[in-house]
Amino acid sequence: MKHIEFSDVKITGGHWRTRQAINRDVTVGAIYEKFKDTRFNALKCEWKEGDPNFPHIFWDSDVAKWMEGASYILTSSENNEILQIIEQTMKTIMEHSDENGYFNSHFNVKYQNERFWHRCEHELYCAGHLIEAAVAYYNLTGKTEFLNAMCKYADYIEKCFKKEKWPHFTTPGHPEIELALMRLYKATGVKRYADLAKHFIDEHGMQHPNDSFLYSWATNLYNQDDVPVRERNTADGHCVRALYLLCGMADVALEYNDNELKEACKRCFDNIVSKRMYITGGLGSTNLGEAFTIDYDLPNRTAYAETCAAIALAFFSNRMLSLEADAKYADAVERTMYNGIMSGISLDGKAFFYENPLEVDPDFNDRNPATTNKDHYPLTQRLELFGCSCCPPNVMRFVASIGGYIYGYDEDTVFVNQYIESEFDVNGTKIKQITKYPENGKVHISCLSDKKYIAVRIPFWCENFKINHSYTTKNGYAIIELGGNTEIDLDFDMPVRLMCANRRVHSDAGRVAVMRGPVVYCAEGVDNGKDISSVAIDINSKFEISDSEFLLPVLKTAGYRPPESESLYSDASDNYEKIPLTLIPFYAFANRGATEMTVWLLRK
Fold this sequence. Notes:
35% of the residues lie in helices and 17% in strands. The protein has 14 helices and 22 strands. It has helices at residues 14-42, 59-76, 80-95, 105-109, 123-141, 145-164, 177-188, 191-203, 239-256, 259-275, 307-323, 327-340, 391-400, 525-528, and strands at 2-3, 10-11, 359-360, 407-409, 413-416, 422-426, 429-435, 442-449, 453-457, 465-467, 472-474, 477-481, 485-492, 496-499, 511-516, 519-524, 536-537, 544-546, 554-561, 577-585, 597-598, 601-603.
């Protein structure tokens, strides 16, 4: 399936219109204010020994993602101040690029003789994000100066890595350039850029001696270097690196009709969603290497679940829809976008989480006062800036481009992949979608198209639904024949469901998670008191659904807490205290101060 571009889709109401308004009015400016004295200033390449704020190896990528996200925002709104910042930033980058088009603030100011020496110092990663920013600005304005500058940079990368092969490594330490080159190819029509992306994909994992050096603490799994990509069966190592690599693999598989590459992507996707993904769509079981570990290892308190990894899963899943029209990929997008991604930003749009654990207890985060070296636990409150701030601009660009995840089409079918109030009119197809989803499961779709069919996704969480047309089902979609202007009413039954994990997920043994529609819920101490990990819930509980300050409803029911005791140990009994239990959307946790939180409640 081909996707309808976000720039052709207008978000007209509901949950995501609110999110996009916060993104436009607050987030883009808040991130810039935190970046301008460090990351943006570094682009001037004026740093000298003794100065503060030495340009970090990944600062250029932070700016590039901001530029890309800001360009997306300006697709549907005007803001001359933001536009001027983008254009001044591009001018600064071009002024400090060398005669080959190379730009990297870190290497420009201190390590000019070590360009392309250090595989894991993010040169090609930063270059990829600059390319994506250039494509985004070109698509916004039609202006080509910065795009041409990035083409020159890409030509230099091609010369160095593919033609002359002199750099001290063969493939990027942090994949990103591959998917960026595919976007550059789509923007320019220059096939050499797609061929260069394919070159990096083909060479990855081929045991090149100059790719063997990583970090002293890492194995070759960390960078997915253990096998050639077409032999890959599992998602391993650093989560974002793995998912960006898979994005590039999917793009190349589609462009070159590479079935081996496609099958490797499918195997890795299935491994992720069936054995290595949190119920929130979060990825990464440990802070050590920000990595996948082994199947079913999904601890809650020490979950890394990096915001960028959830975003990368959405990127990859959406690309998989291009390879294969199967609703399971759109289901993965939906799971991440309502849970593991949006938990990464505060409700006011100003602060961010890098990690998104499924259990928090501030009292135990410093559990060893006798040592200065501490166990790692995720933060209990979002921050406005991190030393490594890849996640804030990543959330910004994702929210701004959410329209690109909603619709797709092939030769005879138009697809509705996500239920978001929106409309578009492109290439003979006009759709208008009216819905409050996921507040409830009612969706109205008007479709006028020269296609034969419309395929509407049956969400992964839905067991009962109604459609006011006859339909057939295929790969998780209800297929409806079109005729003239077709009015479709969908009603997805959206009860509260209690979910259990596979018994191999030992961290969740005897516990249940609460979902309503695609939204995962959690309990916080601010509502429910201390020791919420000891609270049980009856699997036959009745729930009250109430409006809330969190954009989506809260759930209220009864919980059961063991009695307080002065004894460390006592006889087991069925003597539980019945208490009111309030559950809020997982993405909204930690917006009311540091407090306990858990997704998985004891099962009574």
